[in-house]
Specification:
This protein is α/β, with parallel strands linked by helices. It has three domains: about 80 residues, Winged helix-like DNA-binding domain superfamily/Winged helix DNA-binding domain (Arc Repressor Mutant, subunit A); about 110 residues, Periplasmic binding protein-like II (D-Maltodextrin-Binding Protein, domain 2, 3-Layer(aba) Sandwich), CATH 3.40.190; about 90 residues, 3-Layer(aba) Sandwich (D-Maltodextrin-Binding Protein, domain 2). It contains twelve helices and twelve strands. The chain has a five-stranded mixed sheet. A five-stranded mixed sheet has the order 9-8-10-7-11. Strands 1-2 form a two-stranded antiparallel ribbon. The longest helix is centred in the first third of the chain and has 20 residues. About 0% of the residues have low confidence. It comes from Marinobacterium lacunae.
């Protein structure tokens, strides 16, 4: 059912014209691409504006540029057009097996889960295709809800990332931080010692802070980060040369090279543990997405390094 009666006036051609205008910024070029007349494009745009209550495209020196409203609804209309196109093609089960699965994940996912997930994907007939996008500071909520992203993985349990209420979340495994720095003997790092040290910060999901910083803020403390990197190994390599510390998820210790002379220490007491969660939009579920979640749960259950969260 359509939520607004005005939307009943739209048809598939209106959606196609909207998407073409969004891409080309040119009414005449859109008319040529869709094999319709320029007046048809103008009439369709007028109907779109009336039904959606917005100008949608405004004329600028560079062409017809989308408004904020148009940018917001484009993923939904594109998803609807893709769904219409799929309905006219092969049967849903066989087609779903060949569609690429779009994942948005941090580096820890690629290090811990990706090898076995790819093994399972290649064991399918036909092979499943997995596309990986790096997790950024802004979660791809619109992409999940519009069906453009099939699965998101984030550290949980949601205290750091605030999830959209329509999204589902399920923990894959539990993890904790360890503290790495030069030294000969493993020991417990105190909060004061931790805050007085210089830090290198791996930011595998391109965020300037994480749950450790939030925890320190609650205690009235902060840490001094002197170097950032987009991956864990480069930060570990810095520790070989710099008098610094870094935090690392404990499950990654077996996947990375710990430089000589760098010791694994216990973090300050009270440092938060976390879960590694998968997030998806139940409203756009499919056999492929269910397969993906089932495979990840199976991989975590069979990996001795990982403890499933309950």
């Amino acid at each position: 059912m359509l939520s607004k009666n005005l939307l009943r006036k739209l048809d598939i051609q209106d959606i196609a014209i909207f998407l073409s205008l969004y891409q080309t910024h040119n009414a005449r070029k859109s008319a040529d691409l869709l094999s319709v007349s320029p007046p048809t494009v103008s009439y369709s745009l007028k109907r779109l504006r009336s039904c959606l209550g917005d100008e949608l495209f405004v004329r600028e020196s560079t062409g017809l540029m989308p408004t904020a409203r148009a940018v917001h609804i484009e993923p939904y209309l594109r998803s609807a057009m893709e769904a219409i196109n799929r309905s006219a093609e092969a049967g849903p089960a066989s087609e779903d097996e060949t569609l690429p699965l779009e994942l948005c994940v941090p580096e820890a996912f690629e290090l811990l889960l990706m090898p076995k997930l790819m093994l399972a994907a290649l064991a399918c007939t036909p092979h499943r295709i997995l596309h990986i996008e790096k997790l950024k500071e802004k979660l791809p909520t619109e992409g999940l809800l519009a069906g453009k992203v099939d699965l998101l993985c984030v550290p949980g349990p949601g205290a750091y990332f605030q999830l959209h209420p329509e999204l589902e979340r399920q923990p894959l495994f539990e993890d904790r931080f360890v503290c790495l720095a030069k030294g000969n003997t493993p020991r417990q790092i105190t909060v004061d010692e931790y805050c007085d040290a210089l830090h290198v910060y791996p930011s595998p999901w391109q965020s300037p802070r994480n749950m450790v910083d939030m925890w320190l803020e609650q205690l009235g403390h902060s840490r001094k980060v002197v170097a950032w990197s987009s991956n864990y190994q480069s930060c570990l390599n810095m520790l070989e040369e710099l008098p610094c510390m870094m935090m690392l998820p404990e499950t990654l210790l077996g996947t990375l090279r710990i430089p000589p002379g760098v010791q694994v220490h216990q973090p300050p007491l009270g440092c938060p543990n976390f879960t590694f969660d998968m997030v998806w939009a139940p409203g756009s579920d499919s056999p492929g997405r269910r397969w993906l979640r089932q495979q990840l749960l199976r991989i975590c259950e069979q990996d001795a390094r990982l403890t499933r969260s309950v």
